[in-house]
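During data preparation, a discrete fold description was generated, as reproduced here:
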Amino acid sequence: MTVVAMKSPAHFAGTAARCFRDLNMSKHALQHEPAALELPTDSHRTHALHTALLATIHVDRRHLDQACHYGDEAMVHAGAVRSGRVRQRLTELTKRLHPHRDVPVVAAFLDRHRDVLVAA
């Protein structure tokens, strides 16, 4: 079985979203949002990766409420796994949110997850 055969459409959507985000094409990245979230409920690592990724994309679009919503979801799933990539994504999310720390929803998110995000 090839690696491609083992990946789901959600994995490909997550990869596409990440590529578009990295190309500073966040509007295109968000087109993959629904498919990137179509994961089995027990796929905590991929859920954490995708929701943290989507959170960073929403920060880039200045959708801070949605970014914090996805950040909260990422934190729930991250609690179920030990993954360097998940920690890396959460660190990246924190860095992207930091310039907006005076916005109440962002301040609340950063405060709510202060202990975990510092460790990330």
